[in-house]
């Protein structure tokens, strides 16, 4: 098996050979050549995905690993944390073979058609599995991170970051690897992606508020709460926005709906959420600078109470 340097030395393809969706429903689509140059992408059918579940999990672990690479021993521990009673190395070899041949294969039109996007290398005496970068294997979450970083960089240079933030937000179709929420190997990457999703959302909301595009800001928060009804940061921003427009009843409906969902999971809403809902319900004065609002911390709660 050739080292990943094989891809570094080659000219990058015009389009990725594989596209992976990790935000919302997990999907894999392979590039199929067309007569017009730009390929069409064909999804791996659900039957094929189900029969190759271990291989797909291995792919997910690699995508969650720093620089898309992981040592063989760490990969075995991630896939089979209690592997007593099974031949883990044989199981991994079988799984890797399925991943190479049936999921990460290169198209027939490539010069070296036996190659796969999955590569191995010996590093410090241990076998390491590697995947190539976005040019070869495109992942929506990595694209979102890149766009979010570009937006911040452009803003620091005095440019408008709106189009980069909007492009990033279009990629956000839901939770990162939603079928693997409890998987230990997904947690580090999950925190990074989750944070980026929220930064993009609130940055967009702030830009819309600054430009007095109230409806766009409102719609972003509504859509986010449809996916994450227990997110109290988004909830408080939305009900504040509605209340400031005189739509207190609508704000209360949303607040009570989310608070009930939180309590159904045997949790209790934060004090600031309950206090904000109480003030709206009783028609009390709310003084919040909406454009600068990010999350209501203890200081914001004291301000709300102080004006009572």
UniProtKB/TrEMBL annotation:
The lineage of its organism: Bacteria, Bacillati, Chloroflexota, Ktedonobacteria, Ktedonobacterales. It holds the Pfam family BTAD. This is Bacterial transcriptional activator domain-containing protein. It comes from Dictyobacter arantiisoli. Residues 139-281 form the Bacterial transcriptional activator domain. GO terms for biological process: regulation of DNA-templated transcription. InterPro entries: AfsR-DnrI-RedD_regulator, BTAD, Sig_transdc_resp-reg_C-effctor, TPR-like_helical_dom_sf, WH-like_DNA-bd_sf. GO terms for molecular function: DNA binding.
């Amino acid at each position: 098996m050739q080292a990943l340097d094989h891809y570094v030395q080659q000219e990058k393809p015009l389009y990725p050979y594989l596209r992976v969706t990790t935000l919302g429903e997990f999907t894999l689509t392979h590039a199929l050549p067309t007569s017009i140059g730009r390929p069409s992408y064909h999804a791996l059918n659900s039957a094929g995905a189900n029969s190759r579940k271990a291989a797909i999990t291995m792919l997910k672990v690699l995508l969650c690993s720093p620089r898309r690479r992981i040592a063989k021993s760490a990969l075995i521990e991630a896939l089979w944390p209690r592997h007593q009673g099974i031949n883990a190395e044989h199981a991994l070899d079988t799984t890797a073979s399925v991943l190479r041949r049936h999921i990460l294969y290169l198209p027939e039109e490539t010069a070296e058609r036996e190659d796969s996007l999955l590569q191995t290398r010996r590093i410090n005496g241990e076998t390491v599995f590697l995947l190539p970068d976005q040019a070869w294997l495109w992942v929506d979450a990595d694209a979102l991170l890149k766009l979010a970083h570009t937006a911040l960089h452009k803003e620091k240079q005095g440019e408008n970051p709106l189009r980069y933030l909007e492009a990033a937000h279009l990629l956000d179709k839901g939770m990162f690897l939603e079928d693997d929420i409890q998987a230990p190997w997904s947690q580090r990457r999950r925190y990074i992606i989750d944070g980026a999703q929220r930064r993009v959302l609130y940055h967009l909301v702030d830009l819309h508020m600054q430009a007095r595009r109230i409806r766009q800001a409102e719609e972003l928060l509504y859509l986010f709460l449809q996916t994450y009804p227990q997110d109290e940061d988004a909830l408080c921003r939305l009900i504040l926005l509605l209340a400031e427009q005189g739509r207190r009843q609508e704000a209360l409906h949303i607040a009570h709906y989310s608070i009930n969902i939180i309590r159904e999971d045997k949790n209790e809403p934060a004090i600031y959420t309950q206090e904000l809902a109480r003030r709206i319900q009783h028609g009390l004065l709310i003084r919040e600078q909406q454009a600068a609002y990010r999350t209501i911390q203890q200081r914001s709660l004291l301000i709300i109470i102080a004006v009572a």
